[in-house]
Design goal:
Two copies of one chain form a homodimer. By secondary structure, chain A is α+β, with helices and mostly antiparallel strands. Chain A folds into two domains: 7-177, Jelly Rolls; 179-260, Arc Repressor Mutant, subunit A. Helix content of chain A is 35%, strand content 22%. Chain A has helices at residues 50-63, 141-149, 154-178, 181-197, 215-222, 226-238, 255-260; strands spanning 65-69, 74-76, 84-98, 104-110, 115-116, 127-140, 207-210, 242-246, 249-252. In chain A, strands 1, 2, 3, 4, 5 and 6 form a six-stranded antiparallel sheet that branches. Chain A has a three-stranded antiparallel sheet with strand order 7-9-8. Chain A starts with 49 loop residues before the first helix and ends with a helix. Chain A binds a DNA duplex through helix 6.
DNA sequence: CGTCGTTTTGATCAAATTCAAAAAGTGTGG
DNA sequence: CCACACTTTTTGAATTTGATCAAAACGACG
């Protein structure tokens, strides 16, 4: 692993509030429970600014209004007015663009603790939908902007969030531009596992986790077709790299092989 | 054109200093001449903050130290320390990632007036090289950070720059994930033309412009091979969409067709 | 148990890659 | 100015990867 690695940024890293890995989040997807501290340590390479994170988390907890989006429901539309910033409490959100002939490209999947809807322009550049029923908290953008004006260097935190999104996008570009179907699926599974199961799990025993999204969603994220994704799962299973307990339940049996795919 | 359009953001828009189209830049690539005002109007959809732009341009003009990078020379390496922010005065810079087996993905091309090297983390996530001899001005990141601390809401400008990069990346993801070779090349040419010749030219007569980069660079940007890029140029020429005065000189003969490719 | 949506598998097809070589450009030195 | 070496671009033929079309298997749910 020398170049082009850092799988973790392909999907959301454990937290997206700033470049520091934020220690406040719900324990697992779907519980919507109380935030738990200290699950990840900020890497030395990242700017740690806990007070800002705490402030953002606090902002949503205090003045955020609850929003519930049903499975496949739309949080906001492409070209829609940017008026809220959301923090996910449970469930999974996908952001995507759709070409006028129906081709769809999923930009990213967002999970509990992640912030979605952050954009600088006035209109959303992509739409956001729920992969599965999601609960969120919304804060008006004008409130956020007011906070910025009020001097607290919240803008710095927003910048870092945007920068993190940019890193993720750049990894995605490399994946889509230069990786084979097998590598794409491998990278995706490894990144998703570290997001769902926690980074620490990657060093321990075989990880077992559920895929919250359909094969179609995975295909549209990886720039493949649903059939190719399905076949690739089968191939990886035949190679002994993964084991499919069910279509939506994956065990990573050979993480070394997966990490190798990262090139 | 309803969704997934805005070709212009695939490559650099005329200016990347903020979301506003900045009116200060050199007249054309390679001259390194004096900046000219008022070439583009900021679109209504973008946040115009001229004073910030002006401040950034001024910063580079006043305290920036000149840097010259020869053709194919490296401005900075992937994983290299982030210590400077650069503004291009002439020439073209590419940013790219390289997989350990040599596969390369170009993230973007940057031209006169663009800012390169902006990253939030401590280490560069990609390398930057000169497509052709480039002259730049460098400002130390610590100076930039000092400016931020000093209260001027420069961080807001940096945020907007990062956000603009993010938009570009998202367009690139759609291109790599869901577009055919022909569409990729078409989108690329249209975007490059509007970047080089100016947005206004897109509404007027047939645009004629030079490609500063090789077929290999284009291939690595579009996630294709050099042969496919070459064949696609030939196809587009046969279709009457473009005309190749020489390998590096392109005329867009049918911009409607190109714009249609944008879906 | 039957229906509906999702996933898998099979057969065929097409787009893009690979390997190979020719053609066109560029620059250098005689 | 031409000859030569070298790089870039184009073209051709064969191959491969992933897409498409079609249908079967599977799972959830009323």
């Amino acid at each position: 692993m020398t170049k082009g690695d850092d799988m973790s940024s392909i999907l959301q890293t454990p937290q997206t509030v700033t470049t520091a890995n934020v220690p406040v989040r719900t324990p697992s997807v779907g519980t919507g429970g109380v935030a738990v501290r200290g699950q990840w340590l900020p890497s030395a390479d990242q700017i740690a600014d806990w007070s800002l994170d705490a402030r953002i988390v606090h902002l949503f907890a205090e003045i955020g209004t609850p929003v519930v989006v049903p499975r496949n429901g739309e949080l906001y539309a492409e070209d829609g007015q940017v008026d809220n910033l959301y923090r996910i409490e449970s469930g999974v959100i996908r952001t995507c663009k759709i070409l006028n002939d129906g081709r769809r490209q999923i930009d990213g999947f967002y999970m509990a603790g992640d912030i979605v809807g952050l954009e600088v322009g006035r209109r959303h550049q992509y739409c956001a939908e729920a992969v599965c029923r999601a609960t969120l908290r919304a804060v008006r953008m004008r409130t956020v902007h007011a906070q910025i004006e009020a001097g607290g260097d919240l803008s710095c935190a927003l910048w870092e969030m945007t920068a993190r999104e940019l890193l993720r996008s750049q990894q995605h570009i490399l994946l889509l531009g230069r990786r084979s179907a097998q590598e794409r699926v491998g990278c995706f599974l490894l990144a998703l596992a570290s997001r769902i199961a926690g980074r620490n799990v990657l060093e321990t025993a075989n990880v077992l986790f559920d895929l919250p999204m359909s094969r179609q969603d995975i295909a549209d994220y990886l720039g493949l077709t649903i059939e190719t994704v399905s076949r690739t799962f089968t191939q990886l299973e035949a190679m002994g790299v993964i084991a499919l307990e069910s279509a939506r339940t994956v065990r990573l049996s050979n993480r070394a092989a997966l990490r190798e795919m990262n090139g």
